[in-house]
Each structure stands twice: as structure tokens, then as C-alpha cells.
Design brief:
- The longest helix has 33 residues.
- The radius of gyration is 26 Å and the shape is globular.
- It is 38% helix and 23% strand.
- Helix 1 runs antiparallel to helix 2, helix 4 crosses helix 5 and helix 8 packs parallel to helix 10.
- By secondary structure, the protein is α+β, with helices and mostly antiparallel strands.
- It has three domains: 86 residues; 129 residues, Nucleotidyltransferase, domain 5 (2-Layer Sandwich); 110 residues, 60s Ribosomal Protein L30, Chain: A (2-Layer Sandwich), CATH 3.30.1330.
Length: 365
């Protein structure tokens, strides 16, 4: 559900101040490197103007200047503390430029545009075998299954007496090969638990292959209509199709959160506004934090983020002295991460009060 908070967990153990930098990182030009240098100069100036220490500035510089340029249009997010870089990722849409130096990291644009890809598998299959590629945390592992069953092609010409039925043996060989790929994929799925299995190949190979899969694997399959195995179809096209599928899933997640939020407001399983959401976060009751347009709103807290409240009065009712004033768009997402909640950046489908809402694990009294 939603942008899982796992990927932000290392932010919880780091000490501020943090630098959070967002900028367009599109490389459709020949002088991409020079462009980055120019952009960096401007970003550095803003960091320094906001009081960034040299150690913080240089860890951000390293992340920006030394990272591989993106392919095509997109953005980049870099969040760092003086100890080093904590987030350095490609964004599917350009964001910013935005630069913040603050006591807490700012992660909303990563929630909105981060290219978070779960573990997934691509299988290119035909009747001679298959190529299986596992994509996990930016790493890729490939495996080829060459079927043992031959001949795959029907013998041409008249059937020679005494040789059995070549048509039937070719058919059996094809089945055997397809089954071998299905078995290999099944053990990979049981081992790596990918969220999606993309299947590529010509129509009949795909159909025969999917038929061989057990239900627990079949339920993860998305068939792609791009090219056949070994046909040299552009990786570009395949990448695009895979990107589209993850985009569809992301929209579905926002839809689901919006539905749960609307239904929950009536039943006590959702809340909105700074008062309601801070109370739910303090209680550890937030399942999904729904981030809208929070603007420059602030919240207060004692020494510990877990005491966050909309204003000093609420905080003193809780018996805590306000020792810090924090931006709500930084404090609330981070507190949600620390309680294991999912984060969703909403669009105009729902506009919660104060730009912040939450789907709850259980109704607060």
C-alpha cells in the first residue's frame, strides 16, 4: 500500500541539519555534464545562503556531480546530512529547483515522483527456452534456460516410416522446454518474492507458458505485447512498457487511499487536519498518511518528534514543553515513517483539511 516507508528508515537515525535538494535532471542535450555543473553552482549558492555547513554542501555536491546522468527527462532528489548522502534518486518527473536546509529532511517530492520499483522479474520466452531477469534494488541478475527437448521444429517433407510422428515429438519438445522455464521461474518467485512478473514473447509462447505456471506465480504475471524472444526489440520499448505498468499501479494506490479516506471519514477510520492527524500519529494509529498541499504550516514538538502537536496549547495539555517549531511538511511524513505508516501524495481527487489526512489502523476513541 502506497509509498512504503522502508526506504526512508535510514533518515530516522541521522542527525540534522539536513540539506534537501530537488532539481530537473534531464539529459537530452550533448552538454549534459556542463549543464549539471551550472545547476550545481546555483544549488550550492542557495545551500550556503541557508547556512549549510561545508561538510553538508560537499556531500551533496558529490552526489550530484558524480551520479550517472538520467536518461531522458526527469528529476533528481538528494537528501543529506553532514554524515553523508541519505537519499539520492531519480524522479520520474522534473521537480524543483527546491533547496532546504532544515532540522528535518524534506521527502514529499520523493513520495510524489520517486521511481520506487519493487522487485520484479522479466521473462522472455519461446518454445526453445527462456531468459529470466530479476531486478532488485537497482541490481539485475540474468539466467537463461535452454530447453533440453529437441527437435523444436517440425520435420519438413514426407514423414519417413519408422521415425514416429515428428509433428508430435516437436510438440512434446516444445512443451518440455516451456515447462523447464516455468519451473525455473517458479523457484525464483518462491525465493525472491517479486511483486510483478513481466512475460514477453510471441502470443502462443506466452499463452503456453502462463498455462504452466502455478497460481501463486500466475497471479503476479503481466503480459507485455512487445517483441519476441531474441527478436532484438528495443530495450527502450520494454523499459517504457514496464514504466507504464508501475505508473498504473501507483495511480491505483492513490485511488485506493482516496477511497479508504473518504469511507473512513464517516466511520472513524480516517482523520484530516493538523489536529486530527497529529493525534493519530502520536497514537501510532496511522496506516497511510495522505499528503496534500500543506503549504508553510508548522507544528510544535518537545525534544522528541513523537510529541508533535498542532500548537503549544495542545502540547502543554499533554504535559510537554514546546522546544521546537517544525515545518509540518517535514515533521509529519518523518513521524509517519517512524511508525511504519505508508505515505501517499494525493492529487486533486481529495483535498484534506490543512492539506493533510490519514487512513487509520483503528478508530481513536
Amino acid at each position: 500500500m502506497g509509498m512504503q516507508s522502508e526506504r526512508f528508515r535510514q533518515l530516522l537515525t541521522s542527525h540534522g541539519p539536513f540539506g534537501s535538494v530537488y532539481f530537473e535532471d534531464s539529459h537530452d542535450t550533448a552538454d549534459a555534464r556542463a549543464q549539471i555543473e551550472l545547476k550545481w553552482r546555483d544549488l550550492r549558492e542557495q545551500l550556503e545562503r541557508q547556512g549549510a555547513e561545508p561538510a553538508l554542501t560537499s556531500s551533496i555536491e558529490q552526489a550530484i556531480v558524480e551520479s550517472r546522468p538520467a536518461v531522458g527527462r526527469g528529476g533528481r532528489a538528494v537528501v543529506a546530512s553532514a554524515d553523508g548522502v541519505l537519499v539520492n534518486e531519480h524522479l520520474i518527473r522534473p521537480a524543483g529547483p527546491e533547496v532546504r536546509v532544515s532540522p528535518l529532511p524534506y521527502i514529499v517530492p520523493v513520495v510524489e515522483h520517486g521511481d520506487e520499483r519493487p522487485t520484479y522479474v522479466v521473462v522472455a520466452v519461446d518454445h526453445a527456452g527462456g531468459d529470466i531477469t530479476l531486478h532488485r534494488e537497482g541490481r539485475v541478475v540474468s539466467d537463461t534456460v535452454e530447453g533440453e527437448g529437441y527437435p523444436v521444429h517440425k520435420a519438413s517433407g514426407a514423414e519417413t516410416p519408422g521415425y514416429g510422428d515428428p509433428q508430435r515429438s516437436a510438440e512434446a519438445a516444445r512443451q518440455h522446454n516451456i515447462r523447464a522455464v516455468a519451473d525455473r521461474l517458479t523457484s525464483l518467485v518462491d525465493d525472491a518474492a517479486p511483486e510483478v512478473v513481466f512475460v514477453v514473447g510471441e502470443v502462443r509462447s506466452r499463452a503456453d507458458f502462463v498455462k504452466e505456471l502455478p497460481e501463486r506465480v500466475k497471479s503476479r504475471v503481466v503480459e507485455l505485447q512487445v517483441g519476441a524472444r531474441n527478436s532484438g526489440f528495443g530495450d527502450e520499448q520494454l523499459r517504457h512498457e514496464i514504466g507504464q505498468e508501475f505508473l498504473r499501479r501507483r495511480v491505483a494506490v492513490i485511488d485506493q487511499a482516496a477511497q479508504q479516506f473518504r469511507a473512513g471519514l464517516g466511520s472513524g477510520l480516517a482523520t484530516e487536519g493538523l489536529d486530527g492527524v497529529t493525534a493519530a500519529l502520536r497514537a501510532g494509529a496511522v496506516e497511510t498518511l495522505i499528503i496534500g498541499d500543506i503549504g508553510d504550516a508548522t507544528v510544535v514538538a518537545g525534544d522528541d518528534l513523537g510529541t508533535v502537536a498542532p500548537n503549544p496549547n495542545v502540547l502543554s495539555e499533554l504535559g510537554t514543553a514546546p522546544t521546537q517549531v517544525l515545518r509540518a511538511d517535514e515533521a509529519l511524513p518523518l513521524l509517519a515513517v517512524s511508525t511504519g505508516a505508508a505515505l501517499v501524495r494525493t492529487d486533486e481527487r481529495i483535498e484534506p483539511a490543512d492539506g493533510i489526512g490519514a487512513v487509520l489502523r483503528y478508530a481513536l476513541r
